[in-house]
Protein 1
Amino acid sequence: MIISRRAEFSASHICRNPQLSDEENARLYGPAANANGHGHNYVLEVALDGEPDPATGMIYDLKELKDIMMREVVDPMDHRHLNFEVPPFDTVIPTTENLTLEIWRRLAPHFTEGRARLHTVRVYETDETFVEYAGK
Ligand code: NI
């Protein structure tokens, strides 16, 4: 059984590889390579899997999940410029793929014990596009 929680945060980023020329960056990332950066209203969906505890009927306390998502992702990233304010994106290109991976790394340690395991992390960069990661 899967339970999910959603949260939103707004952040700016630049998708640019400093080892490539302006021309190559523009070809790879389009306008996202522009050094001024631009913003997104990201939607994060975190899913946990497990079986309900027979005593409580719950897999995991969704309030607790919210608190972890706020502490590990929303508070440090909301209204930030990812490249300049949120490591490791000073050195890692903050594509949605890399952002999703970083969020997984921040959340997974919270779900190594107990009934619930981190199942998927999904990050929507737009209404139409998202990246999903389900661990290795
Ligand atoms: Ni972008």
Protein 2
Amino acid sequence: MSAEPSIFTRIINREIPSDVVFENDHLIAIRDIAPQAPVHLLVIPKTQAYANVSELAAGDPALLADMVAVARDLAFEHANGEYRLVFNTGATAGQTVFHVHAHVLAGGLEEGSLA
Ligand code: 5GP
């Protein structure tokens, strides 16, 4: 695990402001600063021990399942319950923050858009 706090750890610690839409002991959800859909939320584990979804699935599958449950609940709260769940994995796949997070995209997506 990197000793440097990730940008999401700094958000979790309130060192950087964000629009928090959900929080519990293990997860936080915020609005993405550069939304790619009418509803674009990020569901983020509070630990930065896992860089991507593959590491999380291997290391703490229950936490991954919790992320999916929170994503579903947020999609009902902020849209009609239908959503796209995206985990960019690796820089060439578009990942820029190496602290695992799920993009929850909803609210009328363009057909074929990958966000
Ligand atoms: P990735 O590209 O790693 O899959 O996703 C990182 C996401 O974090 C991007 O969609 C980006 O807009 C979002 N992001 C980066 N910095 C911040 C920030 O300071 N605040 C918020 N709310 N979102 C951020």
